[in-house]
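Appendix B. Raw example, untouched.
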Amino acid sequence: MKRPKIISVLCIIGFIMVVFAFVNVFSPDIKKIGMAVPALYGAIIAMQFISLVGVWYFKQWGTTAYLIAFFSKLIFHMLINDTGIGFYVFVLVSIISAVYFLRYFTKMNPNF
């Protein structure tokens, strides 16, 4: 099946959000929390990017990985008490994206 336009738009928005989130990996605020925290946050952002690539290619594993990355990032931000306006924008866009990704989940390719 061809990828629906709404999935393409949500993936592009997601890619833009990943670029802005990747910059935060190197921020002094993240480094102050702990020595391994930037590496953990970078792994979560990398997983988010990889999952969006999977959704872009209309693969079921992309949606599954997107949900795992979403909840990982959500828990991470809550644990470090980083709940500013960017956090709420991330949550809103991610929930909308997840709803559409799950809506088309059965039409996605189950193979790797």
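End of appendix B.
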